[in-house]
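[09:14] KT: can someone run the structure on this one? pasting the chain below
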Amino acid sequence: MELRSENVMVISDLHYPYCDVDEVRRIVKEESPETVILLGDAVEEVKGFHDFKSSLGNVVHVNGDEDVIKGDDDVVSLFNGGKKFTMLHGHQLMNEEGEKWLAKILMKVNREIPPFLFCLGFRVKMSGFLVLGHSHAMSYFPSLQCVNAGTMSLKSNLYNDRGYLLIRKGKVNMKRI
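[09:31] RB: done, structure tokens below
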């Protein structure tokens, strides 16, 4: 799916309803994006999700491996500020058990190694600035033109980097909460 938008908010791994719904609505209202991209694993329970999603405005839902409702597409190509951003959840790289096992070991050496390798794994396959979810890590690697988008979930995970991304004028801004 191709999308052109100059004011984008990326929320990854929301895991609705295991998030602070009021916090998400408040942040979206404050940031007032033209488009909200839910970058996979947005919904684990159907009840109330459609109302919640519509309250966020113009939403594009990228498929994740834990979504119980099918999203709009697996990959979104966003054109913003003259740049192409390739967005996908990221579960496509390897199986989750293997990822977690490897990440636990590598995190002992350096916390940034697993998200870096995650970006590197997709960099060899895809073009554009990469925006990835799935890991719940929030990390930016300018040399790889890749960012891991964090999470807005309250569920415990290997990484629990709470935050979201803003993409405006071709630049990514990480917002930690």
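[09:33] KT: thanks! The radius of gyration is 15 Å.
[09:34] RB: yep, looked fine to me
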